[in-house]
Design a protein that fits this description.
mainly alpha, Serine Threonine Protein Phosphatase 5, Tetratricopeptide repeat, 15 helices
Length: 236
């Protein structure tokens, strides 16, 4: 556990919740709603402010659990920033993921915490087969996060995820198809070999009789075969 800064006491639950509430911004809440973020139990506190709070708190698994239990939107995002991935259990993942009610909380948890937990690849596979919208999104968001953050993962680990991306590409639900697309693009931007594999999969998806699948494929192909990505991959 990261120690609190010398001369400063670590903020506790009550102090943290009080600080979140003190930074309530109605304009931000309205803006979040326009971007499809669930405005329920939300105070409109920007991510940079939450990151600063997380830095002041340090890693604190017990506080993370308490903050999550509050049901407050920003507290749940903050909990993903301060939790210790080594202390996260399968039961905790199942509980948190099942309670996702907004795409941003889902994505923040995947990017800040879940992709650093043990067996993250297996969790991505498991979650991506769920029927629940945000649970399924979490599976693909986790794939995207792993492709971006896990520098030690092998190409084979990512190639094993591609059939799941094909399967998920026909899901018409907006929050799912965007995560499927995100996963495909991030895997395809990792290196030249995975770019080739992702482009091949995208062309396979493109042929499926599904409006969602065609969108996933066409959008991914535009980026993965584009000059910017190809130039960067050649420089690696």
């Amino acid at each position: 556990m990261m120690a609190a800064k010398k001369g400063k006491s670590r903020p506790g639950y009550d102090q943290t919740i009080k600080e979140i509430k003190s930074k309530r911004n109605p304009n931000n809440i309205a803006g979040m709603a326009r971007f499809g973020i669930n405005p329920a139990n939300t105070y409109g506190v920007p991510i940079p402010i939450l990151r600063k709070m997380a830095k002041d708190i340090g890693k604190d698994h017990e506080l993370a659990l308490k903050l999550w239990s509050s049901g407050i939107h920003e507290a749940r995002v903050l909990s993903s920033m301060i939790d210790d991935p080594e202390q996260v259990t399968d039961k905790q993942i199942a509980t948190w993921v099942d309670q996702f009610d907004s795409w941003d909380v889902c994505d923040q948890c995947c990017m800040n915490l879940l992709d650093k937990t043990e067996h993250a690849f297996e969790k991505a596979k498991e979650l991506s087969t769920s029927d629940k919208e945000f649970v399924k999104r979490a599976g693909f968001a986790l794939m995207a996060s792993l492709a971006f953050h896990d520098k030690r993962a092998t190409d084979e680990q990512f190639k094993k995820l591609l059939p799941l991306i094909v399967k998920g590409s026909t899901d018409e639900r907006n929050f799912v198809k965007k995560a499927v697309n995100w996963a495909l693009r991030q895997i395809g931007k990792r290196n030249a070999a995975l770019n080739t594999a992702a482009v091949e999969i995208a062309r396979k998806i493109q042929k499926l009789d599904s409006k969602a699948a065609k969108w996933v494929a066409n959008d991914a192909l535009r980026e993965l075969t584009g000059d910017a990505v190809q130039k960067r991959l050649k420089q690696k």
